[in-house]
Design a protein that fits this description.
By secondary structure, this protein is an alpha/beta fold. The protein folds into two domains: 86 residues, OB fold (Dihydrolipoamide Acetyltransferase, E2P) (Beta Barrel); 213 residues, Ribonuclease H-like superfamily/Ribonuclease H (Nucleotidyltransferase, domain 5). The chain is built from eight helices and 13 strands. The chain has a six-stranded mixed β-sheet, sandwiched between helices. Strands 1-2-3-5-4 form a five-stranded mixed beta barrel. The protein is elongated, with a radius of gyration of 25 Å. The chain starts with 9 loop residues before the first strand and ends with a helix.
Length: 317
């Protein structure tokens, strides 16, 4: 995300964070410094030519006061620095760009076991759920598999603004449990997925809990089944853009979200008595508001956990 500056704009005593510094040599053999600077609005390139180096004092990871002028070359806008000096005792946190971030969670509902044909029933029981000893319990797990289930609700929240949104399949208007959430209803899964991806286009970082293994693959497969276009590729190894907190906060194995909430002293989304296993029954009983409230609580708690991880546990990101 680039800072919005115009070519030829004067920069006078403006403060930036120094993110990167690289010493380079021109074709003529003159030394210059190539920098990356940032503030809350984004990043910008900067150059310190040989004749200005003696007037500049800076350090990576420190805030610097810059004077100079912007210049565009080959489509790239840079600040040509005339002078700069390190600003002592300046907190650097406010100079990191605020990247649009979405914390989200999905809820799914499965077909009833009796609705599956004999081949599908056999595949569910003897392959997908072969490790489940209780076969009656296995029959209730269709919602876990995108070929036998569908997305019935998605909760989203922006951890910077603390404004949330729930998209849900329902045949009536739903009332938010939390004041900072808005609920929007849809007639079917296709309409819900289309709206979700439109909303997702506005964000650059996506935060989930177990999203690498469940939420993202489920959404992508269901989008294909509904012929809904997924607007961007999801690389599970891109740990900066796609943050799965289950992978970030783990010791030997992943913890359940509800127990991390208890350990970190944040709101536990399961305390109301609703769990993910209850969603199918709630959906078939048309208790859509209970599902919407549950997914809102899940995203709210995940956002709280993300703030703690980002501030105290992630290191320099």
């Amino acid at each position: 995300m680039a800072i919005k500056l115009e070519s030829g704009e004067a920069i006078i005593d403006r403060h930036f964070l120094v993110k990167k510094v690289e010493k380079k040599i021109t074709r003529g053999g003159d030394a210059y410094m190539d920098l990356e600077l940032s503030d809350k609005d984004g990043s910008v390139a900067a150059k310190i030519w040989n004749n200005a180096i003696s007037f500049c004092h800076f350090e990576i990871g420190k805030v610097v006061e810059v004077s100079g002028k912007t210049q565009e070359y080959n489509g790239i806008l840079s600040i040509i620095v005339d002078k700069c000096q390190t600003v002592e005792n300046e907190a650097v946190e406010s100079y990191y760009p605020v990247v649009p971030t979405m914390v989200f969670d999905i809820e799914t509902v499965g077909k009833k076991f009796e609705e599956l044909d004999s081949a599908e029933q056999d595949y569910l029981i003897n392959n997908l759920c072969k490790d489940v000893e209780d076969k009656e319990e296995a029959k209730k797990r269709t919602a876990l598999f995108s070929i036998f289930g569908m997305v019935c609700a998605i909760g989203c929240i922006n951890p910077e603004t603390n404004k949330g949104l729930v998209l849900a399949i329902a045949d009536k208007e739903l009332k938010p449990e939390k004041e900072n959430y808005t609920y929007k209803t849809f007639k079917n899964e296709k309409e819900l997925l289309e709206e979700f991806w439109e909303v997702a286009k506005k964000y650059e970082i996506f935060v989930t809990y177990n999203g690498d293994s469940f939420d993202f693959p489920y959404l992508i497969i269901r989008s294909g089944i509904n012929r809904v276009k997924v607007p961007f590729s999801k690389n599970r190894y891109d740990n900066e853009r796609f943050v799965d907190l289950q992978n970030k906060i783990r010791q030997n194995h992943g913890y359940k979200l509800e127990f991390l909430c208890k350990a970190f002293g944040i709101e536990n989304p399961k305390e109301s008595g609703v769990h993910g296993d209850d969603v199918s029954a709630l959906f078939y009983n048309k208790e859509y508001n209970s599902i919407a409230n549950y997914v809102a609580r899940d995203t709210f708690s995940t956002a709280q956990l993300y703030r703690i991880w980002k501030e105290f546990m992630s290191g320099q990101i």
